[in-house]
């Protein structure tokens, strides 16, 4: 099978069964093949008649069939790019998304020469902590997750990128005493309402529910973190939270009610409310 035949087959199959536009189907078909061949898109365009090796043909067929069933591309390939880093990604982890780079950007802005300790709560693949570790020096970075299997993935990713991070299995900040304070606490916690219909659609169907939904209003985990940080943040320390694009006002109100100051909400690449921050 040639490259052009493989792409045409995949594009038609994806468009027909996944209700994708022709552009979306073409993008996914090309992306899967470039990743399996370890080449760029220009290679596909320049060599349309090249014959695919049998192992690649079989792997591509399997990948497209999995995608037709709705499986996220990150889980099919086993990794996802975030902050220019390739991160191992499995069904034990949330899939890193570009929106979360807003959280990394805002955290970097809050780091000063006086910053000593930073913690990432609910680290998942380790995306946030690893991105921060690659951009900073002389800061103790910790990362937590409640689930052992998830932490194992995060540790693997940190090792791959030589990121110095201490990983701890914990429920948010619960095991940390008020004497173990941090300059910065950052988190992308679950924030979808537990009965939200979107949980049964698209990639969300395959991601761990515990990493997506949090209570009837989506604010259970965020409220817990805000309360715990009252005694675990140093004076003038910062809490940075990712959230849904409709939740900015609610989280502003929660931070204000719990004594935080300098509260503000930052928009993501799509100009939607995505990160809210507050200072102790």
TrEMBL record:
<dbReference type="GO" id="GO:0032259">
    <property type="term" value="P:methylation"/>
</dbReference>
<dbReference type="Pfam" id="PF05175">
    <property type="entry name" value="MTS"/>
</dbReference>
<keyword id="KW-0949">S-adenosyl-L-methionine</keyword>
<feature type="binding site">
    <location>
        <position position="188"/>
    </location>
    <ligand>
        <name>S-adenosyl-L-methionine</name>
    </ligand>
</feature>
<dbReference type="InterPro" id="IPR029063">
    <property type="entry name" value="SAM-dependent_MTases_sf"/>
</dbReference>
<comment type="function">
    <text>Methylates the class 1 translation termination release factors RF1/PrfA and RF2/PrfB on the glutamine residue of the universally conserved GGQ motif.</text>
</comment>
<dbReference type="InterPro" id="IPR002052">
    <property type="entry name" value="DNA_methylase_N6_adenine_CS"/>
</dbReference>
<dbReference type="InterPro" id="IPR040758">
    <property type="entry name" value="PrmC_N"/>
</dbReference>
<protein>
    <recommendedName>
        <fullName>Release factor glutamine methyltransferase</fullName>
        <ecNumber>2.1.1.297</ecNumber>
    </recommendedName>
</protein>
<dbReference type="InterPro" id="IPR004556">
    <property type="entry name" value="HemK-like"/>
</dbReference>
<feature type="binding site">
    <location>
        <position position="145"/>
    </location>
    <ligand>
        <name>S-adenosyl-L-methionine</name>
    </ligand>
</feature>
<dbReference type="InterPro" id="IPR050320">
    <property type="entry name" value="N5-glutamine_MTase"/>
</dbReference>
<keyword id="KW-0489">Methyltransferase</keyword>
<dbReference type="GO" id="GO:0102559">
    <property type="term" value="F:peptide chain release factor N(5)-glutamine methyltransferase activity"/>
</dbReference>
<feature type="domain" description="Methyltransferase small">
    <location>
        <begin position="106"/>
        <end position="198"/>
    </location>
</feature>
<dbReference type="InterPro" id="IPR019874">
    <property type="entry name" value="RF_methyltr_PrmC"/>
</dbReference>
<dbReference type="GO" id="GO:0003676">
    <property type="term" value="F:nucleic acid binding"/>
</dbReference>
<feature type="binding site">
    <location>
        <begin position="122"/>
        <end position="126"/>
    </location>
    <ligand>
        <name>S-adenosyl-L-methionine</name>
    </ligand>
</feature>
<feature type="domain" description="Release factor glutamine methyltransferase N-terminal">
    <location>
        <begin position="6"/>
        <end position="78"/>
    </location>
</feature>
<dbReference type="Pfam" id="PF17827">
    <property type="entry name" value="PrmC_N"/>
</dbReference>
<dbReference type="InterPro" id="IPR007848">
    <property type="entry name" value="Small_mtfrase_dom"/>
</dbReference>
<feature type="binding site">
    <location>
        <position position="172"/>
    </location>
    <ligand>
        <name>S-adenosyl-L-methionine</name>
    </ligand>
</feature>
<comment type="similarity">
    <text>Belongs to the protein N5-glutamine methyltransferase family. PrmC subfamily.</text>
</comment>
<keyword id="KW-0808">Transferase</keyword>
<feature type="binding site">
    <location>
        <begin position="188"/>
        <end position="191"/>
    </location>
    <ligand>
        <name>substrate</name>
    </ligand>
</feature>
